[in-house]
Structure formats: C-alpha cells, structure tokens
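Q: What does the assembled structure look like for these inputs?
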Amino acid sequence: MPVNQYVVFEIEDREFAVDIERVKTIEKVTEITRVPGTQDFVMGVINLRGDVIPVIDTRKRMDLGDRDFDSESRIIIMNVDDMEAGITADSATEVIGIERDLIDSNLDFSGDRDDGFIKGVARLQERIIVILDLEKLLRLA
Amino acid sequence: MDANQFLDIFLEETVEHLESLNNCLLQLEKLPEDKSVLDEIFRVSHTLKGMAGTMGFTGMAQLTHGMENLLDGIRKQRIKVNTVLVDLLFECLDGLQAYANNIAGEGVEGETDNHGLLERLGRLLGAEKSEDCQEDGGSQTDIEFNDHDTMVLGKARQQGFNCFIIKVRLDKNCMLKSARAFIVFNTLEKKGDIIKSVPSVEDIEDEKFDRTIRLVIITQSDLDEIEGSLASVSELEEVEIREAYIPDEIDNFHLEEDTNEDYTKDTGTKQRGRKSITGKTVRVDINRLDNLMNLVSELIIIKTRLEENRDGGEEADTEETLEYLERITTNLHDAVMKVRMVPIERVFNRFPRMVRDLSKNLGKDTRLLMYGEETEVDRTVIDEIGDPLIHLIRNSIDHGIEPVEERKKLGKPTEGKIMLKAFHDGNTVVIEVEDDGSGIDIKRIAQKSVQSGLYSQQQLDALNEEELVELIFSPGFSTAGKVSDLSGRGVGLDVVKTKIESLGGMVEVENKPALGSKFIIRLPLTLAIIQALLVNVGLESYAIPLNSIKEIVTMEYSRIKNVQNREVVLLRGEILPIIRLDRELGLEDHSVLKGEMTIVVVRKGEKLAGMVVDGLIGQQEIVIKPLGKFLSGIRYIAGATILGDGRVSLILDVNPFL
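A:
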C-alpha cells in the first residue's frame, strides 16, 4: 500500500497535515513585516535567510479564531506552484506516513467553515488528521 | 537523449549567427570585394545550415543551402556582388530570422514558404549548383560480438527476427552530431531493438565519436523497410545495412580509412573561426547570477549591521574592520555587477540594418554612426532599452533627416547623419541619439498640440521654449504631416518616456532648429541596488528610493490647508499636495495635529507631493528584493529589502501617489 509522508501541525487542538514534498522548512516565528493593501489573512513578509517570503495566517484563512504566537508557534515554508509562502501553525508536531487507503477524500464537508481547504481526512486510530489543499489555501482570490 | 535539450543551445547559437550574418552583410555592401567578409558569411550560413539540418528544421536548412550556393558562386567569381544580391541576402536573413522566431515561440519552424526566395537565389546563380564536395571521415573501431550478443542474436534468429548490422555515416557538415545520432536511434527503435552500438550510446551522447556509428538491430522488418526509414533522416552521408551473420562470423565491415588528411586540419580552423564570434559573449545562467547577487546582498546587510554596532560602542578595531569590510563589499559588488553587465552592442547591433532599410524605404540617405558600443549596461536594462531606442532612431530618420533634395537646397551634405552614442557618466549610463536633420519645429509643435486639442493656446503661451519642446513627450502627440508606417501615429515619444522612467531613468531633448536634435537618455547602471531613505511611519519603517525624493522639509501641522477636499501646504509659494502615509498604508491615524511634521517631498517628472512621515531613519544602500509572485501587483509597494537587523522593510513606490 503506498504511503505518503505528511507534516502534521496543530491549530486550535486540531491536527492538520500537508504533503511533505511541498514543505521546504519549518521556522520559528520571526518578525513579520505587514504588507499594506493585502487581504487580512496575509500576515506580511519575513526574511528567510535573505529571501523575502510571504506568510499566511492559517487561523484567519480558515476562520479558526485568533491567538498570539508563543514559543511553540511555527511558520511552515511551502513551495507551491513555483512560489514560496509560509503558513502559520500553533505547533508543528511530527512527520508521519499515512497509507493512501486511510485518507477519505470524498467527505461532504458542507456546513464546516473551513471545508474549502480540505483535501481529505485521514483516520489513524483515535486521531483525525485533516489534509489541507495547499493550492486553495494559498490562492489569494 | 532528448532533442529538446539541444533546442536552447540551437536557438542561442542561431541568434548569434544571425547577428553576425547581419553585420557581415552590411559590411559586404560597403566592401563588396572583401574576401574575408564573404568567407565569414559563407562560414556562418554553412554553420547555420548544419545546425538547422541537425535539428530537423528543413526549411531553414534549405534556405541556408540556397544562400550557400549563391555565396559559393560569388566566391568562385561567377557572380558579382551588387545591391540586388545584397538585398536578396538580407531577405534570406529575414526569412531565417522568421524561422528562428517561430522556433523560439512554438518549437517548430512554421509553415513560412520561402520557395520564392530559393528560386530567386537559384536564378541569380544562373541555376548553377555548386557541387557538394565529398569528404570522408574514417572510423577505427569495428563491431564485435561477445558471447552474450551472440546468444541474443541466435535466439532472435530462432524466433524469426531479422538481425542487421547498420553502418551510418553522418554528413561532414553535421554540427550537432549527437542530436543527429539520437534521431537515427529513435528512427531505428521504432522498427526494432538496438542491442549494440559502436561507439557506445554514452560516447555518442558526449559526442565522443567521429562520424560513423555502427548498430546491431533485431527487428521484424526487412532490410528495405529499415533502409526506407533511415532515408527520411537528413544529414546522413551513407547508410549501409546488411544481415548479421552469427554465431561465429567475424565482422568484415572494414571501413575505408580516413582518406582525407585535411579533414582534421579543416575542422581545426573551423573551430578557431567559431571562437571569434562566440568569444564576444559570455553566457551565464541568470539564476546563478541572481544567487551571487543574493550573497552580495547578505554581505551588504552585515556591513550595515556593523555600522549599527559602531553607533553603540566605539572601538578602533570595529572602525578598521568596517573599512575593510566596506572595501570588500564594494569590490565584490563591482565584480558581480560586471558579470551581469553586457555591452550595449547587443542592442546597437540591430540598428545599422534598420537604418539602412528605413532610409531606403523613405528615400533618404542616412548614415548611422555608433560610438561606445562597448559601454556596459546591466542585463535588465539591455532587455528593456531596445524598443525605446528603435523608436528614437525611427523618429530621427522619419521626422529629423530631410529628403535628399531638401538637404541639397539647405546646403547640408546629402547624406544625413544619425549618431548613436553610449557612455558612462558617474553612476548612470547615457545614451544619445543625435541627428543633423531639421530639428524640432517648435511652432509646429505648438500648432499641432492646439489642433489635436491637447492644450489650449493660453496654456502654450505660458510655456518657454524648452517646455514647448517637452510637449513632444505628451501622450497622443504627433507632428508627422502624413502617417507613415513607422511613425506619426501619435503613439510614440510618450511611450519612450514612460519606459525610460519606469527603468528609473530620464529623457531629455536638446533642440537646434534647422541643425538637428539630440535625445539624451540617462539610465541607472543597475536596477538591483539603490540608495534609499528609510522613514518611520507609525511603528513601521519604509524605504523611499532616493532618486524620487526632491527634498525633506519640516513645518507646523497647522499649515495644512484643505483645498477642494485635498490637503495641501504652501511650500515657497507653491501648492504641495499632502499625502498622509499612515492613512494610505492602512495604519491608524495617530498623528497629533500640532507641533512639527516631517514631509518628504517626492516627485514624478514635474509632479510633486509631500509625504508626511513620523521620523527619518537615514539614507542607506538597499538591495531590492522582489515580493514574489504571490504578492505581486500591490499598490504603493515596489518591493522589499532586508535591513541591518534582519527585518524586512518595504520599498514605497511613489508613482501611484502622484
């Protein structure tokens, strides 16, 4: 059974995952410079070793309520469609392999507020891990 | 092997060859007797033919072949060089250019029909065809079967397959031998399995072979079919196919040994000749350059950091280190910039031909003089500057230079002169386009702009001479009495001006009525590192490019007045619109409406505006970093930079404010 590797992170005690192939690095939160004239879920830009990288506020993007950064907070730098962007997380917990069979991508999420960004849901024993659709998450429109 | 990987190389080289062909043809026109020029043209067309053939661009190959025949005719003194001939060669060049453009755009050469051209080439030559001389390259290694091969072949034979040994010799003009070999392999693999090749596939990929390839193929097709399929591959000088005898047959495919000793010598000189052209340009992967730029920017950041340290505690050591570091960064910066620099020749090269064609079309006699082609400009500038220059030169020929008769009447030399000059001036590059034509007729400009409704007579009366000349840069302006296909359509100099300004440069005109006009373009040497003023707005800091700042003034808040719902102040008797940066940038309006405020006066052309900032941090050299695709097109923000403390600061684009 094919197993894909995912980076798992937490927001509001819920577990989310993104395909590890898309993850460039995981960074601690550094100073974020606000960029005027952008949508409110664009937090701003950070300096990632000489490159200027935009950061998306995942909580705002998915309507999950506000929370200040703490020492566990992370910015996960992604590579999507040839552009780099970071998404915020309360914490980045682990990398796990998930069998493709365990991912249900035909769920009806209607009613759920963050349904648009879900690619599928993996059930691992007690855990439910939401696999995010990065293309949608990072789409500005 | 993938033929596509050669396409880029092919295109790059083609562009170079076409450029040099263009230059040579211009020279040939001037010096029809010069044999070295002719040889060069011949050589270039020959190379092009080989390259095109190899890549399977038959149209291009045919056209160059036709040119080659004609050139050979000239070389053998059967025909003389005259205008008709040069014109025809230029047309061929255009044809080749069209092919190349198609290939660059779509990867195929397109359906352009050049039979007319080919026919005319043939006619000029008197339908006489030069004989393709045959040369022979030899081969040293023979195919040998090892036990494994024998076993495989034996089995195949038992199962009713045919086994052939195929010998292919590539044409001696074949430039991309491995690409051609790849096509041969491809063709054969459609018919069966190639079980062995001499030389090995690896060697062929690395072009480590002469011209002969031998292959062993197991196939269900018969000999004729194989032969037929190979017949469609061009640039093969010779194909021999025979049945492979197994198991213990000793291969008797002995090839004629190298019969032409000059062959190697010949290619030797060819290679040297090639270098003379390719040596002029250096191809560097732009990504690598950008990376290098990144490193340099890091260094600059460290420098800035050190400078900040110094402001904290003072030690003589720091001072020294700083100076040293500064020197290193400066040098490194220069070195890197040099790699990015390209002689402006790259742009200038296409102008002689353009001037020639244009003057012919317009019945004018014009000579283009170019100076400072070696002046180096940043690549980013090179790519952008071509079109504006074309525009200015066209303008000079079309509007500036008078027709021959008129020039005679005026006592000017019948031949008009256009001078194209490039030189460095401090931190800028200056490009001048000067002509000795009629100059700009100020009265006509005034008349035209009133006629076309751009300005009223009263507005014009208030302008001085210089300002009147500047009118030619207004959008929609044209003085050409009649619209030619070149200029006079009213989309022109304003575009030039906008373009140059978007590059951070400026255009001026110097006008001498009846004696000519001169357009002067000033451009920054590079677009990657700029001087900027860092300012505080609220708790944030922004960088404002220094070249768009006119001055900085402080005044009382109370001096802000409301005029037609806009905030303005009077600065030395002039009205200056005020921009509250905090509001515009979506920050809270925190300004205390009393005490002093700092205003950064920015400009765009003649327009001014005052930006209210909360504090000045200082002037700094900053490295422009793009915000990336994700955040592109944000109003007010031109990019970002990284400050000494590692924070990102945004660069303000002042243009939308004005």
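The helical segments of chain A are 58-61, 134-138.
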